[in-house]
Amino acid sequence: MDLSGKKILIDPGHGGDFPGKTYKRREEKVCTLTVSKALEKLLEEEGATVYMTRTRDKDFGGVDIDDDVNERVKYINQKYSGKGIDVLLSIHVNTDAFLSRVGVLYPERGKASKILAQNLARKYGTFMANTIASEADLAVLRDTKVAGAKALIETGKITQSWYEDDAEVERAAFAIVAGLYDYFREIK
Ligand SMILES: [Zn+2]
């Protein structure tokens, strides 16, 4: 099995005027794009058709971060509904706050999304220990109507330096690909 015929929409979180989490000179919007591009490359090598909500440093024209997420949701729904997207995966980075954790979030509705998140968390845990899947009420998961399954992955903490290390970024992306394989095997 490879990923031929699978359509995957990657959403690199934040961008443009909305950098997301920051730590010294590291910005979430840069980290998410770096991971997303590595993931895109690996998925294409596995035969998947990959779409990206952005491929450069841009926002979606919102007046603040919440509004920008809503604009992003609108963009996703306009551009990708009816396109037969199998998986929407939004890529993010968490803070280093005590309670924040690395994990895969899934919306309340949709059994496939929960199965996707559980498989992603299991395999991502080989890269980042203690990755867990949990339900979350987020606009990008709740309000997008484009994909068979949806998840948002917090790939790490903004204080971590691996985002600037190509080999580590590739390892992270590889773990996500492995999780996608497990998901497609489980739901087929
Ligand atoms: Zn984020």
Provide tags for this entry.
39% helix; 23% strand; 188 residues; alpha/beta; binds zinc ion; 8 strands; single chain; globular; Aminopeptidase; two-stranded antiparallel sheet; six-stranded mixed sheet; 5 helices
Q: How would you describe this structure to a colleague?
A:
It is a single chain. With 188 residues, the protein is an alpha/beta fold. It has one domain: Aminopeptidase. The protein contains 5 helices and 8 strands; from the N terminus they run βββαβαββαβαβα. Helix 3 links the parallel strand 6 and strand 7. Helix 1 packs across helix 5 and helix 3 packs across helix 5. The radius of gyration is 15 Å and the shape is globular. It starts with 6 loop residues before the first strand and ends with a helix. The structure holds zinc ion. Zinc ion binds next to loops.
Outline the fold blueprint:
Elements: E1 7-12, E2 22-23, E3 26-27, H1 28-45, E4 49-52, H2 65-80, E5 85-94, E6 103-106, H3 111-124, E7 132-135, H4 139-142, E8 147-157, H5 166-187
Parallel strand pairs: 1-4, 1-5, 5-8, 6-7
Antiparallel strand pairs: 2-3, 6-8
Helix pairs in contact: 1-5, 3-5
The chain binds zinc ion.
How large a portion of the residues is in β-strands, by DSSP E?
A: 15-25%
Largest sheet data? 6 strands, mixed
**What's the domain count?**
1
With strands numbered from the N-terminus, the spatial order across the biggest sheet is: 4-1-5-8-6-7
Ions, cofactors, ligands: which are bound?
zinc ion
Shape: globular
Q: What is the CATH level 1 assignment?
A: Alpha Beta
Question: What structural class do you assign from the helix and strand content?
Answer: alpha/beta
The N- to C-terminal Cα distance equals 11 Å
User: What is the succession of H and E elements?
Assistant: EEEHEHEEHEHEH
Q: With helices defined by DSSP (H or I, 4 residues minimum), what is the helix count?
A: 5
Low-confidence region ranges: none
Query: Remind me, CATH topology?
Result: Aminopeptidase
